[in-house]
Amino acid sequence: MAALLLNPRPELGLLFNGTVMMTTTCGQTIRAAAAYRGSDLVETAVGFKHLAGAMRSSPRSVAVGSVGDYGFESLTSDRDPLAAVLLATHMLAHHAKPLATIIASIKAELGTAHLHSSEQHLPHMSQEDVHELLHALATSLGWPLQIDRTIDGYRIYGPNRQSALVRPSSTEGGLRIYSEIDQEPGEELSKILAAGEQ
User: Fold this and answer.
1) Considering the entire predicted model, what is its pTM?
2) Which residues form the Alpha-D-phosphohexomutase alpha/beta/alpha domain (predicted)?
């Protein structure tokens, strides 16, 4: 949806100056969409309150959260899903093409990835414990062990913009794993969930 809304068209300039605010749990596809459009990208911690604060410092920016939250600074500093729906509807009218055709075009430009979030109710984990979990994830998936400390958690990377982010839940008290794979959830996702449970 975010890649859809970033699809450039003249009237969008009234709302969007090219700066994309996103939480660290958003997938690699959003990063690719921003880069493809030549947009500046600002990454925040999880929670729309962080996006709202970042939006206020950048007029006409757009904010994207991983659970479908969207906001447009020129309209409000809060999430505004109705504006996102109206923009998507306007885009369909502008292009005069079926939604499936537009999405296929975006996938051809940016590639396909599937974002999945799971939650593991685990006791408090030290940084060393989290690194062991990431090592298990990387090993089970055959990914290189490259651990990056993000603004809100730790991330490992696989080929084709695949990744897995591990962070403590700020609402449930468990551990959350956000994984992005380049095909429909299947064996790879099962491995990620199994490694997380172990």
Assistant:
1) 0.69
2) 14-105
Beta-carbon-side half-sphere exposure of residue 33 (alpha carbons within 13 Å): 25
Distances (CA, A) of 40 to 43, 91, 92, 99, 171: 10, 22, 25, 26, 30
The structure tokens 């396909």 sit at: 112
Query: What backbone torsions phi and psi does residue 52 show, to the nearest 5 degrees?
Result: -60, -45
> What is the rounded CA–CA span in Å between residue 10 and residue 21?
20
Nearest to 63 by CA among 91, 38, 83, 92: 83
User: pLDDT tens across 29-38, in order?
Assistant: 778 878 877 8
Domains of the chain, each with CATH number or no CATH: 2-110 (3.40.120.10), 114-197 (3.30.160)
Three-point CA angle 95, 97, 98, nearest 5°: 135
The two structure tokens encoding residue 71: 């906001």
Provide the residue type at 168 as one letter.
P
**Measured distance CA(83)–CA(130) in Å, rounded:** 38
- For helices 99-110 and 81-95, give the axis angle rounded to 10 degrees: 100
Partner residues linked to 177 by β-bridges:
118, 166
Amino acid type, 144:
P
The rounded distance, in Å, linking the Cα atoms of 117 and 101 is 27
